[in-house]
UniProtKB/TrEMBL annotation:
Domain of life: Bacteria
SMART domains hit by this protein: BHL
Pfam families in UniProt: Bac_DNA_binding (PF00216)
Name of protein: HU family DNA-binding protein
Membership in a protein family: Belongs to the bacterial histone-like protein family.
Length: 92
């Protein structure tokens, strides 16, 4: 499902206009980004939890040359699925 299909489906189910749903999704995205940027986490009921995970610096290997390279430490988004979502997918 792409973004426009999601907007159309949510608008249909919630009986809202597509423009209202589009604005809502943009706002939710912005709020989630701001919260994760500040190191927090966001729980989406029935879906899961978004948080920030720190990946330590490590050694890697350039696949083209085989030469060892240093990979810098970084923060990455992390998602943990809620039990309800896992149960629905497992039963599909």
């Amino acid at each position: 499902m792409n973004q426009s299909e999601l907007i159309a489906k949510v608008a249909e189910v919630a009986d809202l206009s597509k423009s209202d749903v589009e604005q809502l999704l943009k706002t939710v995205g912005s709020v989630v980004q701001d919260e994760l940027k500040s190191g927090g986490e966001v729980t989406l009921p029935g879906i899961g939890k978004l948080s920030v995970k720190h990946k330590a610096a490590r050694k890697g290997r350039n696949p083209a040359t085989g030469k060892e390279i240093d990979i810098a430490a970084k923060n990455v988004p992390d998602f943990s699925a809620a039990k309800a979502l896992k149960d629905v997918v497992a039963g599909a």
